[in-house]
Amino acid sequence: MRVIAGQLKGRKLKAPNGLNTRPTTDRVKESIFSMIHPYLMDSMVLDLFSGTGSLGIEALSRGAKKAYFVDHNKQSISIIKENISNLGLLDQSVILFSDAIKALKELALKNEKFDIIFLDPPYAKGLIIPCIQEIQNNLLLRPEGMIVVEHDPEDQLPEMIEKLHKRKDRRYGNTNISIYSEEA
Description:
By secondary structure, this protein is of the alpha/beta class.
């Protein structure tokens, strides 16, 4: 696993042993970032269910200003800290060891707002819609912001969730990417 573009292009990322995480493949990551590239520069990014931190790190490499990494697995948090430290991204990163819903509530209390939110929960656990509802209820997404959801193609997500419209829906093998935003 590696950073695929930007100032850290080619740098290796550590991944945890075992199958508890499902790192985003380079092909899917490249597709995601080609879709959101115009919105990355100086953006505030939230990487929920971070796993290795790959998506948030890729965003920082490509020009995001700051990334928040959230995961509730101790091994994942340790890997994220190691990857961020090895890449010299400590000043641009905030790591939260927390359940996603609890983290969203904490971020709302701190009045944080995000331009891009990566949502890559474990497949088939029913976490996507509750997380998006929590994001909307707590006004964590800036008006021009977007939520990038990585999910199982079997999970057919609705065209609208709260005030958000599904803008893109692409399938890459056993991974689907759906992008939600408010803007038309």
